[in-house]
Amino acid sequence: MPAADDARSKPARAPRRRLPLLLALVAVLAAAAAAAWFVLVRPQAPASSLPAPAQYVPMAPPFVVNLDETPAGPRYLQVEVQLLSRDPLAVEQLRRHEPALRARLLMLFAQQTYAGIADRAGKERLRAEALAEVQALMRAETGGPGAEDLLFTSFVTQ
What we know:
Blueprint lengths: L1 H39 L14 E16 L2 E13 L2 H9 L1 H13 L9 H23 L6 E9 L1
Antiparallel strand pairs: 1-2, 2-3
Helix pairs in contact: 3-4
């Protein structure tokens, strides 16, 4: 009768051997379904979460102006300016209106005194005024501010 016992025990063991294979198949299908959901259905992050890349418009050559005379004699200001915008159309418009922008900034820089721009607060005030000049001209010409910021990339007084 041992042969009969073997015949009975083999069918009982066969489903147990298939159980790990069946579990592995279910796990693979679940992983595939999760991957498909992640790629196809998952809510996407808003595209505007990062700002557009900054584009810089250098205003060359540097501005050079006389400052109001002091008892020490004549003083000069040399400043390099770059305009920042994230809009490609605004960059084109800034380049198109650069002569008018340079004229306005030149007048603004020529009104400065050596004492008024000697410290950081004076330089920051001048930068804010220069940005306001640029944005005012661009609003008048294009209807938009054009530049998001104005940067002094070199600032020399002597």
